[in-house]
C-alpha cells in the first residue's frame, strides 16, 4: 500500500496552486508519483492525500490508479494521521500491512527504489530511503559551530518511508499526544517514540529530488529530460 502525501499548500514554492499540481514534463507532480506506485509490483493500492478543496481535481488527474483521495491536515504529520485513520478505519486485513509514505514533491522516484522498499518491508518493521551525505555537516547554535559529526555516519532522508501499519500508527498516536513536538518526517517519529524499533536504510538516489523551490522544478525538468533511470 502506497500513500502519496500531497496535502501541503507549498507555501515555500510561492505558486498560485499547490506545488504538487504544477506540471513537470506534461504531467503534474501528483500524476508522476501516482503512476510510479501504480505500476510498481508489490504495491496493491495507492491512496492520495490532497489539500481540502482539491480532492475532485486530484481524483480526475489520478484516475483509477488511486483508490481514495483523502483530505490533508494543517501539517504534514496531520496529513499522515488522516491517511492512517482512513486505513485503520476501513478495516485493513492486518495491522501487519505495509505502508509506503511518499511525498508528492518527489516526482522522480524510481521503480528500483520502490522495489527495494517493498523487499525491505518484507523483513523489517520500519524502512527509510536515504543517500549518504557528500557534504560535511555542522551542528550550530546561535550562528556558532559547535560540533562536526563524522560525515560517514550522515545520510540525507528521502521518501518513500515505509512501515508496518501497526508501527507507524502507534508512533503517530504517541506523537499526537506530545504538544511539544512537530515532526517533519515519519522515520523521526518512530525513532523518537518507538526507539526499540530499528529503522533500516534503503539506498535512495540523487535523482529522487524534492521540489521545494522554483529552481528545483527546473532541475527536475532537466533530470526528466536526461532519460536516466
Can you offer a commentary on this structure?
The protein is α/β, with parallel strands linked by helices and 229 residues long. The chain has a single domain, classed as Spore Coat Polysaccharide Biosynthesis Protein SpsA, Chain A (Alpha-Beta Complex), CATH 3.90.550.10. 33% of the residues lie in helices and 22% in strands. The strands form 3 sheets. It has a 7-stranded mixed sheet, with helices on both faces. Strands 2-3 form a two-stranded antiparallel ribbon. β4, α2 and β5 form a beta-alpha-beta unit. α3 (76-89) crosses α5 and α5 (165-176) crosses α6 (186-193). The longest helix has 14 residues, at 76-89. It starts with a strand and ends with a helix.
Topology, element by element:
Blueprint: E1 2-5, E2 23-24, E3 27-28, H1 29-38, E4 46-50, H2 55-62, E5 68-71, H3 76-89, E6 98-103, H4 111-121, E7 126-132, E8 139-141, E9 144-147, E10 155-164, H5 165-176, H6 186-193, E11 200-203, H7 214-226
Parallel strand pairs: 1-4, 1-6, 4-5, 7-11
Antiparallel strand pairs: 2-3, 6-10, 7-10, 8-9
Helix pairs in contact: 3-5, 5-6
Defining traits:
229 residues; alpha/beta; Spore Coat Polysaccharide Biosynthesis Protein SpsA, Chain A; 7-stranded mixed β-sheet; 7 helices
